[in-house]
Amino acid sequence: MTSGLIDIPCTLMRGGTSKGPFFLASDLPTDSETRAKVLLAALGSPDVRQIDGVGGADPLTSKVGIVSSSQRGDVDLDFLFAQVSVDKALVDTTPNCGNMLAAVVPFAIERGLISPSADRTTVRVLTLNTGTMADITVQTPGGQLTYVGDTRIDGVPGGHAPISIAFRDTSGSVCGALLPTGKSMDIIDGVPCTLIDNGMPVVVLPAHSLGISGYESRDALNADKALAAKLEPIRLKAGRMMGLGDVAEKPIPKMTLISPARAGGAINTRTFIPHVCHASIGVLGAVTVATACALEGSIAHEMAGRPTAGLLSIEHPSGEFTVDLDIGMTTDGPQVRKAALIRTARRLFAGAVAIPRSAWPEAGQGNRFQDGKIRMGDAA
Predict the structure, then answer these.
(1) How many whole angstroms separate alpha carbon 153 and alpha carbon 164?
(2) Count of the separate structural domains present in the chain
(3) H/E element holding 177?
(4) Is 207 found in the same domain as 314?
(5) Is 191 exposed, middle or buried (0-12, 13-18, 19+ CB in 10 A)?
(6) The domain containing residue 362 runs over which residues?
(7) Which of 77, 155, 238, 332 supports an S-S bond with 280, CB 3.0-4.6 Å?
(8) Is 167 a domain residue?
(9) Which residue from 86, 92, 99 is spatially nearest to 57, judged by alpha carbons?
(10) Residue 72: which CATH number?
């Protein structure tokens, strides 16, 4: 028995190029304010090192997945993504995260929410943050989940089993429209931008308009205070133009600086999330930038060689990300018919994360807790 601590079952998962603890929704508080306190305590925020929690002291490793069986007849699993700020007491459930989405089905199989159906198991997942649905296929040879394989993704060492993600109806999932301003190009502070949302609100803008090449290293861009001073005012104005309101304390929209591709891809990128340069590019960020490349009149279309659809390789600081895209034109404008990609994921450890009881005082009142622990037999 440990005094003053509560143990909550969780599984640390890597999803794509992100990682963080995954929880069953039933193991967390139902009200969002208490849940936020629990997640901050679990990850160790606010603290730049997250030394008193399991966070990785970086936006890419300070993320949380919350999973439950869905009550909808056309959906198997519900997924709530939480971005936990490293240095602020802030938990944001506004955006999607396609990387963490890749770990949802493996986690659900590990915890008994889903039973493998064949050598490949396909599960429909609803991201509660934005209402986005995706059909996710994992490898389950002989009815057993496997993480072993030869699929490699840039930003992750080694090979792993492939996880296919086919998004459904991602256009405008956060902003309400693929092009929230109704234009394929806007001018903000004299800089041409494309404000677009195909699963992730992104401001696409040419790197040269900000006085850089777009090929700088992540560290160099993070140290560029003059660049930051130019980017943030544009982001704040873009947020309002995209219908997101005051985004000063929000992780969206992402800012993606583009330049001509150098390694055979469609375009080269440097993405800020929102104030730190991404080591690669987010899943839905890549989908959205690829969509911008295929839209006539966008800031990315000419630079990418005027593609219309198909396989589009988005270059980023640690490699590339290929998106399989299909866009059609309707009387209402462009319509994304398909956005699919391959990720990998892996369980890193399973157990329980200990948090101070003060973060969730009511937990001890339930009969699922015993000696400061949730009874594992009741967790699923």
Answers:
(1) 12
(2) 2
(3) none
(4) yes
(5) middle
(6) 5-162+344-378
(7) 155
(8) no
(9) 86
(10) 3.10.310.10
- Domain match, 284 and 354 both: no
C-alpha to C-alpha distance for 308 and 36, rounded to whole angstroms: 42
Token readout for 268 is 């080269």
- Tell me the per-residue pLDDT of 193-209, one tens digit each, with 9 for 90 and over: 999 999 899 999 999 99
Q: What is the mean pLDDT of residues 150-166?
A: 94
Q: What is the mean pLDDT of residues 121-137?
A: 95
Task: Write the DSSP assignment of 350-380 as a string of letters.
Answer: EEEEEEEGGG-GGGGGSTTEETTEE-GGGT-
- Whether residue 250 is predicted with pLDDT greater than 70 in this model: the reply is yes
Is the distance from CB of 40 to CB of 82 less than 8 angstroms?
Answer: no
pTM: 0.78
CB 101 within 8 A of CB 157: no
Tell me if 169 is assigned to some domain.
no
227-254 in b/e form (b: 16+ CB < 10 A) is beebbbebbbbbbebbbbeebeebbbbb
pLDDT at 96: 87
356 and 332 within one domain: no
State pLDDT tens for residues 304-346. 999 988 889 999 999 999 999 988 777 666 778 788 999 999 9
Tell me the two tokens of residue 123: 């599960």
Token duo for residue 362: 């009511």
Amino acid at 168: R
* pLDDT tens figures, 251-283: 999 999 999 999 999 999 999 988 999 999 999
